[in-house]
Amino acid sequence: MRSEKREFAFPEDPLPPEWVYTVGAGSLERVGPILRFLLADATAARYSDAQIDDCRGRPRRRFPWRPPLRMTVRARFSHPSGVLRGTAGFGFWNDPFLMTGGRLPALPRAVWFFYGSPPSDMKLDMEVPGWGWKAATIDAASPQALLWAPLSPVLVPLMNLRALYRRLWPPVQRALRVREAVINADMTEWHTYTLEWQEREVRFEVDGEPVLEGAPSPRGPLGLVMWMDNQYMVATPWGHLGWGLLDVPGRQWMEVEEVMIRSLSSLLKSYRGQKPKVLKNRTSRVP
Fold first, then answer.
1. CA nearest neighbour of 121 among 113, 134, 130, 133
2. Would you state the torsion angle of the CA atoms of residues 198, 130, 161, 214, taken in this order, to the nearest 10 degrees?
3. pLDDT tens track for 14-50
4. Does residue 147 lie within any of the structural domains?
5. Domain containing residue 243
6. How many helices (H) and strands (E) does the chain have?
7. Residue 148 belongs to some domain of the structure
8. In DSSP terms, which residues pair with 116 in a beta bridge?
9. What is the DSSP secondary-structure string of 15-68?
10. I need a labelling partner for 198 at 20 to 30 A (CA). Which of 24, 67, 146, 162 fits?
11. 130: closest CA among 120, 138, 140?
12. CATH code for position 276
């Protein structure tokens, strides 16, 4: 049976208890209408995470969200890009690394606003740095990507030669449905982040201004995730892979004031159901 959500709004809709996940030095705080994802004196000796998601207890085929939909989040962070430590963000993913339940590992699929601090280096888009505050998409399990997989033992060493990397990586990147764009807005200020996930492409905006358009759409269903943790990750076309934990001295946080997720198909139906009163009363008279 197909599982699909049509709408979610925070703070109007309460968070189900099973959505909340905290570990180590991570915690969630409510300050009026604001939900604060907090790390306090986290250390590299232990994984720390403050997270909400709707993936727990579900097989991936029953994750609730599919295109077309629009997600709007009003958020800010305690520190700017490069100073904030670990990873953080919000959007939709397939939890490929088993963080929300006992499933088989999977190739990543995601559409989200994603932050990774140094020493993270996920250099997946040729034109974008491997760390920072980004709008991003990926579908590493697309049929096109799977066709490239048998060639990876040959391609990865060749990527270490710059000329071959510039020639070979673009078609692989397209097959992975990877597109990214750096967000230059100050992370410490309140901004409204919007993603429109359509069947074929994704559009990202910050305060109504586009930051990434025409990005390839990952396939659904995916799960909602919003988080802040103290990990870093390395994954590059030339075969560098790594993972680890970071010290986070003091307090750092992501504050979320508003979240709205709406199905664009249901929104379109509601528009079609309205009577065009203004147009109906117009005449061709010119003042």
1. 130
2. 20
3. 889 999 999 999 999 999 999 999 999 999 999 999 9
4. no
5. 7-142+177-280
6. 5, 18
7. no
8. 87, 132
9. PPGGGEEEETTEEEEEETTEEEEEEEEE-TTS--EEEEES-TT--GGG-SB-SS
10. 146
11. 120
12. 2.60.120.200
